[in-house]
Write a structure and sequence with these properties.
The chain is of the alpha+beta class. It is about 30% helix and about 20% strand. Bound molecules: adenosine-5'-triphosphate. The site of adenosine-5'-triphosphate has 16 residues, from helix 5 and strand 9. Keywords: Actin-binding, ATP-binding, Motor protein, Myosin, Nucleotide-binding.
């Protein structure tokens, strides 16, 4: 874009020159213009000089403002998608649509966006009138189920620690609440989680509460839309973790819970045997058993 005049205040995309194969263009606002280069400020307020040759193009207005549904991005490229998500995340807007899909970014902090009042707000509302939210996905499924009487499916996927388990619980919380009549079946579905997590979750280097199994949850609704029951199928449990764990990781939570609850004498009898060590220090042997 060497020939086009670059103006102060313009938002541009610029090539990175580090040579890394995963490099993508960066977006920024021009804060200074010189003859052969411009200074830009990126979304983290970091300033850097970019040569005129590195400048790819002006940023589309949809990327400057940010969009709630990325179908509306003028520039539907990986770099524009990542910048949009990053920009929203910084404003604590962790949910963004891409058509009927919802992208969630793990906030790693408790945001005040899962209240009962919000559940009510998302019930039967047009998703376009409200901020993108996981409750809207729950509501969409629930409304489709009621209106079409056809089974619905929500697929939650992502890398370890992305927030799949938390998202599943939030959808269940929404469905339990939306289905109206509070019965103990709904309560049982929600309360089954801690037990399942005790047996199937463990601390890993990426997630203190990592699910080490896949889960298929089947929720049955009656004609009135009330929850009547549920079935949880588990698959691919990481069984090897029971006998060995990588450095910095743990066995399944249940073992620690059991030990924590045992009286001292019993704990000694069933607890992990201490490793025998033979340490030889200056001129004398010491044994740690
Ligand atoms: N919406 C959220 N709000 C606040 N914290 C969250 C949210 N989603 C996830 N977290 C935090 O991130 C941690 C990891 O999330 P989660 O266990 O759901 O990941 P996961 O995708 O299920 O990982 P794995 O595949 O390892 O089981 C949670 O324990 C929680 O602390």
């Amino acid at each position: 874009m060497a020939n086009q005049k670059l103006m102060l205040g313009d938002y541009i995309w610029a090539k990175q020159l580090s040579g890394d194969e995963f490099d993508i263009p960066i977006g920024g606002k021009i804060v200074a213009v010189e003859s052969s280069r411009v200074k830009i400020q990126d979304d983290d307020q970091k300033e850097m000089y970019i040569s005129n040759q590195q400048v790819l193009k002006n940023m589309h207005v949809s990327s400057i403002k940010g969009v709630e549904d990325m179908i509306n991005l003028g520039d539907l490229q990986e770099y524009a998608i990542l910048r949009n998500l990053h920009k929203r995340y910084k404003e604590k807007l962790i949910y963004t649509y891409t058509g009927s899909m919802l992208i969630a970014i793990n906030p790693y902090e408790l945001l005040p966006i899962y209240t009962n009042a919000l559940i009510k707000e998302y019930r039967n509302q047009n998703t376009e009138d409200l901020l993108p939210h996981i409750f809207a996905i729950g509501d969409n499924s629930y409304s489709n189920l009621k209106n079409s009487a056809k089974d619905q499916c929500i697929v939650i996927s992502g890398e370890s620690g992305a927030g799949k388990t938390e998202s599943t619980k939030l959808i269940l919380q929404y469905l339990a609440s939306a289905s109206g009549q509070h019965s103990w079946v709904e309560q049982q579905i929600l309360e089954a989680n801690p037990i399942l997590e005790a047996f199937g979750n463990a601390k890993t280097v990426r997630n203190d509460n990592s699910s080490r199994f896949g889960k298929y949850i089947d929720i049955k609704f009656n004609k009135n839309g009330n929850i009547e029951g549920a079935k949880i199928e588990q698959y691919l449990l990481e069984k090897s973790r029971i006998v060995s764990q990588n450095e910095g990781e743990r066995n399944y939570h249940i073992f620690y819970s059991m030990l924590a609850g045992l009286p001292k004498r019993e704990k000694k009898a069933v607890g992990p045997t201490r490793r025998k060590q033979l340490r030889i220090s200056k001129g004398r042997k010491s044994f740690n058993m």
